[in-house]
Each structure stands twice: as structure tokens, then as C-alpha cells.
Amino acid sequence: MSIEAIINGVIEVEGGYVNHPSDPGGATNMGITEAVARSAGYKGDMRNLPRSTAYSIYHTRYVVAPNFDDVFARDPKVAEELIDSGVNAGTDRAAKWFQTALNSLNRRQADYPDINEDGDVGGKTLAAFDAFRKARGKSATAIMLRALDALQGAHYMSLAKGNSKFEDFLNGWLLNRIGNVAA
Length: 183
Prior knowledge:
30% of the residues are buried. Helix 5 packs parallel to helix 8 (140-160), helix 6 (91-104) crosses helix 8 and helix 8 packs antiparallel against helix 9. By secondary structure, the protein is mostly helical. The protein starts with a helix and ends in a 7-residue tail after the last helix. It has a two-stranded antiparallel sheet with strand order 1-2. It has 9 helices and 2 strands.
């Protein structure tokens, strides 16, 4: 497993150009919204977004910027889940889910102290993850993946409730985003 393989997998799941009327992201290609592409300097038609540009955006914005590459160095599967979740729900939200899970899994701070749930995967979050992995041993990856999926799934359900436009996407999110990374 490599970061390159993770990014290529996300691109495959995201597919090509879409402009769904219920998607607030508007025109999207390979999972890259027009706003994100423009902020990265892409000026062309979204239908023609080069794969190399999408890949570069993924690597810069969804791996390096949120420090998910530092998580990858410790646990590639957890990093894959964070990257995938970050693409679909935002890197800040994915990072906060990670921090929430770490705080909820520390046995009332017996294994390590609580950390800020601020979306910054820095030294304290990584130290907590190291301590979690030490405390849970071989089961750490599976536990964390399930915790992250639970938080992500609850988020999707809350978006879709009440006949919201996000109901259009709920089946796909549950099918393709929950349980898609195995320990």
C-alpha cells in the first residue's frame, strides 16, 4: 500500500465529470470540485481536468496539508480511511473524527491524555495515536477503522434526514464510503 495507490483508488471511486443538481459542490471531476480546482490554479473546463492535476491536488490538499501522510507512516489503512473521508466530507471533519475517536478510545485517559478536537493532526494527535496503537496492539487498526466509519456514517445519515437533497447520495455513500477500508 502506498499513498499513490490510495489516491488512485479514490480517483477511481470518484469517477469522471458530474454536475448533479443536488450537489452543492457543483461541477466535479474525479472528485475535485471546481472551487478546489480553481484554488489550485486550474483554469480549464472541469470536463477536461487532467488526471495529473487531480492527483496533484489530492496529494497536496488531502494528504500533505492535513498531515495524513504522518498517519500513513504509522498505519497505512487508517491513513487511507482519513484520506478517503477527507475527500468526501472534508479533511478538517475527517481529522476531527480521528481526534474524537482517539479521545473516546483512551479508557478515560488511562492510556493517554485527551487531545483537542481541532482538526489539526499535529504532534499531540500523533502521540495519542501512537499510544492508542501500543495499548490496543494488533486490533488497533480494526478498532480505529470501525470508529471512523461509525462517525462518518452518522454524519451521512444526519445530512440525509428530513428529505434533504443529500438523500440522493446516501445509498452511494453507505455503499462506497462506509466499510470500504479493511484492516
